[in-house]
Amino acid sequence: ASKFKMSPAYPNPFNGSVRFTLEGYTTEYIYISILSLNGSKVDEFMVPEIFNEKRIISWSPGPQISSGMYIISAMSGSKIQNGKILFIK
User: Fold this and answer.
1) Are 59 and 34 within 8 A, CB to CB?
2) pLDDT tens per residue across span 20-47
3) Per the omega criterion (within 30 degrees of 0), is the bond before 11 cis?
4) Is pLDDT of 88 > 80?
């Protein structure tokens, strides 16, 4: 079962790293994907289950990531939350 929400990312736009919180309850891992606007996956990682808590997640783009708008997608079970971020080098 998954019942979680993702906060808006901050700071946004960002330069070095961006943070957002996941809050709620999941019995499965939460898969985080960073996507370009054309849908290409630029990064992905997993977050362990959350149990009625708030967890701060941070992402730092690697040197190969160019400036631009990206989408953070958090998925666990059939639940998906998305947010937009703007990376400025």
Assistant:
1) yes
2) 999 999 999 999 999 999 999 999 999 9
3) yes
4) yes
Q: How far apart are alpha carbons 57 and 26 in whole angstroms?
A: 15
Number of Cβ within 10 Å of residue 13's Cβ equals 12
Spatial distance between the Cα atoms of 11 and 78, rounded to a whole number of angstroms: 28
User: CA 73 to CA 89: how far, in whole Å?
Assistant: 22
* CA 31 to each of CA 68, 81, 82, 87: distance values in angstroms, whole numbers, following the listed order: 22, 11, 12, 21
Confidence tier at 2 by pLDDT (50, 70, 90): confident
Residue indicated by tokens 């606007």: 37
Amino acid at 29: Y
What is the CA 29 to chain-centroid distance, rounded?
A: 13
